[in-house]
Amino acid sequence: MAFVVGSAGATMLPQDSNEDIAKRIAPIGQVRTGDAAATADSGASAGGARSGDQIYNTYCAACHTGGVLGAPKINNAADWEPRLAQGMDTVLKHAIEGYNAMPPKGTCGDCSDDEIQAAIDYMVADI
């Protein structure tokens, strides 16, 4: 019980139960960023590796479609050949650790090394 003091004297008001308070302050929704369908369909939550095209379309396309800040464009031989000439191990190392303007693992902080490799393989598949 809570007391309210005023000019007419103290008045007793009923107090909400903890359950009533929890219901009143419970979240009314969730905030999601990005494509909710892609997140739900990513396979990561099911414990499976995501495909190269899933990783590319979710995390890589923003930079690698148009070559943002010098990123090699998908399936563009002129962009990829100098990189591939260094060896796939070096390309993968740069993708995992970050290189020039690319942060480590691009924007996919939860990607496994195998998923990063699958994304690279997807980006060079038609060269």
Account of the 3D structure:
The chain is mostly helical. The chain is built from six helices and two strands, in the order ββαααααα. A two-stranded antiparallel sheet has the order 1-2. α3 (52-64) crosses α6 and α5 packs across α6. It is rod-shaped and about 85 Å long.
Short description:
The chain has 127 residues and is mainly alpha-helical. The protein has helices at residues 18-25, 36-40, 52-64, 77-84, 88-97, 113-123; strands at residues 2-6, 9-13.
What is the element layout, followed by pairings?
Blueprint lengths: L1 E5 L2 E5 L4 H8 L10 H5 L11 H13 L12 H8 L3 H10 L15 H11 L4
Antiparallel strand pairs: 1-2
Helix pairs in contact: 3-6, 5-6
What characteristics describe this protein?
single chain; 127 residues; mainly alpha; two-stranded antiparallel ribbon; 2 strands; 43% helix; rod-shaped
- Structural class designation: mainly alpha
Please provide the ordered H/E string of secondary-structure elements: EEHHHHHH
**Mind telling me the C-alpha Rg?**
26 Å
Beta-strand residue percentage: 5-15%
| Residues in helix, % | 40-55%
Uncertain residue segments: 38-43
Apparent shape: rod-shaped
Q: End-to-end distance, in Å? A: 75 Å
Q: Please, how many helices? A: 6
Number of strands: 2
> Spatial order of the strands in the main sheet?
1-2
